[in-house]
């Protein structure tokens, strides 16, 4: 299991904000991208989701978070830096939708209020094919 793997029993992976006085609040428009290390993994294969924004969130009240839209659960909260990543896996075939957010607080509802930037992606876990008897 990767060090950054999401564990449902432990809850979201959290990188806390640094001590107060970390610097000025970022100014200007924010952007965010969210990508997966692979989009069609085999069942039980880990995939790293990476959310990246153009401004460090350490200095203000914003957080970068990664949300599993399919299961309606937060996977990671990052209170510092420009990148937030978490590894996920599934034990059954199927598609999951994921959302990256920059928002004022990590538990904010997925609504226009308080969200600075949002990006999404999906991953489709596939059942592995059994080996061919002729190989």
Distance between the termini: 30 Å
Radius of gyration: 17 Å
Shape: elongated
Enumerate the spans where pLDDT stays under 50 for 5 or more consecutive residues.
none
Q: What kind of oligomer do you see?
A: single chain
Looking at the structure, the CATH topology is Immunoglobulin-like
* Helix content estimate: under 10%
Number of β-strand runs = 8
* Binned strand content: 35-45%
The largest pleated sheet is described as: 5 strands, mixed
What's the SSE pattern?
Answer: EEEEEEEE
| Spatial strand order of the main sheet | 1-5-4-7-8
Query: How does the helix and strand content classify structurally?
Result: mainly beta
- Name of the CATH architecture: Sandwich
Mean pLDDT across residues: 83
Number of domains: 1
CATH class: Mainly Beta
Helical run tally: 0
Structural commentary:
The chain is mostly beta strands and 135 residues long. It is 0% helix and 40% strand. It has a single domain, classed as Immunoglobulin-like, CATH 2.60.40. The chain has no helices and eight strands. The strands form two sheets. It has a five-stranded mixed beta sheet with strand order 1-5-4-7-8, with no helix packed on it. Strands 2-3-6 form a three-stranded antiparallel beta sheet, with no helix packed on it.
Give a quick rundown of the structure:
By secondary structure, the chain is an all-beta fold.
